[in-house]
Amino acid sequence: MAKRIDIKDLDIYYGSFQAVQSVSLAVPPRNVTALIGPSGCGKSTVLRSLNRMHEVTPGARVEGSVLLDGEDIYGSQVDAVGVRRTIGMVFQRPNPFPTMSIKDNVVAGLKLQGERNKKQLDEVAERSLRGANLWNEVKDRLDKPGGGLSGGQQQRLCIARAIAVSPDVLLMDEPCSALDPISTLAIEDLISELKKDYTIVIVTHNMQQAARVSDQTAFFNLAATGQPGKLIEVNDTEKIFSNPDVKATEDYISGRFG
Ligand SMILES: Nc1ncnc2c1ncn2[C@@H]1O[C@H](COP(=O)(O)OP(=O)(O)OP(=O)(O)O)[C@@H](O)[C@H]1O
Predict the structure, then answer these.
(1) 118-131 helix and 151-164 helix, angle to the nearest 10 degrees
(2) Is 101 exposed, middle or buried (0-12, 13-18, 19+ CB in 10 A)?
(3) What share of residues in the chain are helix, strand, coil (percent, to 5)?
(4) Which fold would CATH assign to domain 5-253?
(5) Which of 1, 8, 71, 176 has its CA 20 to 30 A from that of 29?
(6) What is the pLDDT of residues 33-51, one digit of tens each?
(7) Locate the ABC transporter domain: which residues (predicted)?
(8) Which H, E and C letters describe 90-159, residue by residue?
């Protein structure tokens, strides 16, 4: 649980187009790292390269390495499906299986792994739903469809589903962008709790959100459309938002561009 990530000299391509160039970034365990920057600078692409989701796109590939506690997830012996199991992902739009029950949504990954013991599945479902701050709202309707929950509840259900398989890392791609402000605050509170147990990387367009939830912030930028995105500056979130070293970072966080 809660492993560190070391991204080293990562170049990321879609076919012949280089979307991201030379990214090196250390992500400490039990910590929230926010990826920020203008549209198209490659934040989501970098995030998806951290659990080998990037290569699901035909023609997409990476060069460089991503070490999980020192082990390269792109090593020749490494199974990409296994990587996706240990590095969970939560997407912009909540994507529960809509007709599947709330409980089955949470334990879907465990069942795929072959777990059939009902008591064990019930325990994991309760623990994960408690971990996602959703238990009290759904404990009396665990057999009802996941699609019947509100958007914010569905997103917490997806977080419960992600943590049910005990991942080493949680990746979140704008997890609040489809949510109202109250649901957003609930997810932000949850992220602050989850970081006690998990390494979290979050992409967000919302500067206040990055400032509120993250410990470390990485600012990405691109010189022009069609050029690859680059990591411009990474530092403690407090430093990035109060006194960044690079002018482009300051311009972005103060709303002068992007
Ligand atoms: N499936 C794809 N095929 C080809 N190019 C892609 C694909 N997905 C993204 N790109 C390109 O890669 C670059 C980086 O995109 P990415 O979505 O990672 O940026 P982003 O910073 O997350 O943007 P946004 O903030 O708008 O979500 C962009 O030029 C984008 O057009």
Answers:
(1) 130
(2) middle
(3) 40, 25, 35
(4) Rossmann fold (3.40.50)
(5) 176
(6) 999 999 999 999 999 999 9
(7) 5-247
(8) ECCCCCCCCCCEHHHHHHHHHHHCCCCCHHHHHHHHHHHHHHCCCHHHHCCCCCCEHHHCCHHHHHHHHH
- The amino acid at residue 198 is Y
**Strands of the sheet with 60-68, listed across from one edge:** 71-72, 60-68, 5-14, 17-27, 229-236, 216-222, 32-36, 199-203, 169-173, 87-90
143 Cα–ligand 1 center, Å:
38
Q: Which of 10, 21, 44 to mutate to test the pocket of ligand 1 (most atoms within 8 A of CB)?
A: 44
| Cα 46 to ligand 1 centroid, rounded to whole Å | 10
Alpha carbon separation from 198 to 5, 32, 166, 221 (Å, rounded): 12, 9, 9, 27
**Among 37, 24, 83, 40, CA closest to 206:** 37
**Is the complex ipTM more than 0.90?**
yes
Ligand 1 mutation target, pool 12, 14, 54, most atoms within 8 A of CB: 14
Tokens 């934040």 locate to 43
130-144 confidence digits (pLDDT tens): 999 999 999 999 999
User: What residues pair up with 236 in beta bridges, in sequence order?
Assistant: 216
CA 220 to ligand 1 center in whole angstroms: 13
Extents of the domains making up the chain: 5-253
29 in ligand 1 pocket by Cβ < 6 Å?
no
Query: What is d(CA 24, CA 28) in angstroms, rounded to the nearest whole number?
Result: 13
Q: What is the pTM of this model?
A: 0.95
Tokens of 41: 């600078």
